[in-house]
Amino acid sequence: KNMKITNLQVFHVKPRWSFLKISTDEGITGWGEPMVEGRARTVETAIAEQASFLIGKDPLRIEYLWQSMYRNTFYRGGIILTSAISGIEQALWDIKGKYYNMPIYEMLGGKYREKVRMYGHCWGATTEKIINRALERKKNGFTAFKVLLEPYTANRSVKTYIESQKYRFAEIRQAVGDEIDIAIDFHGRVNPDVAIQIIREIEQYYPLFVEEPCLPENTDELTRITHSVTVPIAAGERLVTRYGFRPLLEAGAVSVLQPDLCHAGGILEVKKIAAMAETYYCKVAPHN
């Protein structure tokens, strides 16, 4: 007889994480991470709404369960529903791996590489703190790291703000040297025109990429930014499913896609997104 799902249980961990445990009648359990920052209880409700469909089903039929959860509703997609599905899908892969005693990557085609380059975050209230953290990351073996764009405040002129970001990035580059790659996350904090001006000012320091130079809702504006600068543009942490990423690829809006496995639809959905990106010669740097 087929294995059956018997229970779904969500655990919340401070300050903002959620984990899902799926149990089966064969004693195999799987864990996933269904989360939206600041919406943990909302995602938990979305999971509970899927429970009546999932309980009693075979957890090994991952594609069937994913398609049913996503398509068997009038209102599809959205960050809440897709994050819930992502965590469920991760837990189902965990169960399947344990059932067959096999790593997930083996079930998805086998291992491709032995290691993956990682970058470290270098947040800090001051440029000095960012540089100190960057040098610490460098000492620990990181060859790339990411910094945040300072938020724009209305008490200074646009010219002053743009120049301050240029000098800040230049100072960081000088401190860490040319052998280190530096990405910068704009977090959609400025409008597209200001984003273009800032990126043009820092192009000479060769950023690894600029992430979310504007909010992701407007693909046309993101494309305009990309076509106005030479620095690679990255986006995707707030987008979900291959349907959400398709417009960016078709418009040539980004050089780096950043799907989040906890939001975009789960492990297999992100692999599908990566396959789409490959046909456009677009890099993939999974978020989270």
Automatic annotation (TrEMBL):
Record keywords: Lyase
Hydrolase recorded as keyword: no
InterPro entries recorded: DgoD-like, Enolase-like_C_sf, Enolase-like_N, Enolase_C-like, Mandel_Rmase/mucon_lact_enz_CS, Mandelate_racemase_C, Mandelate_racemase_N_dom
Matching SUPFAM superfamilies: Enolase C-terminal domain-like (SSF51604), Enolase N-terminal domain-like (SSF54826)
Xref: Gene3D superfamilies: Enolase-like C-terminal domain, Enolase-like, N-terminal domain
A Gene Ontology biological process term: amino acid catabolic process
A Pfam family recorded for this sequence: MR_MLE_C
Domain Mandelate racemase/muconate lactonizing enzyme C-terminal residue range list: 127-232
GO molecular function, one term: lyase activity
Transcription regulation in keyword set: no
PANTHER family in UniProt: D-GALACTONATE DEHYDRATASE, D-GALACTONATE DEHYDRATASE-RELATED
Matches recorded under NCBIfam families: PRK14017.1 (NF010624)
Protein's UniProt name: Mandelate racemase/muconate lactonizing enzyme C-terminal domain-containing protein
Organism: marine sediment metagenome
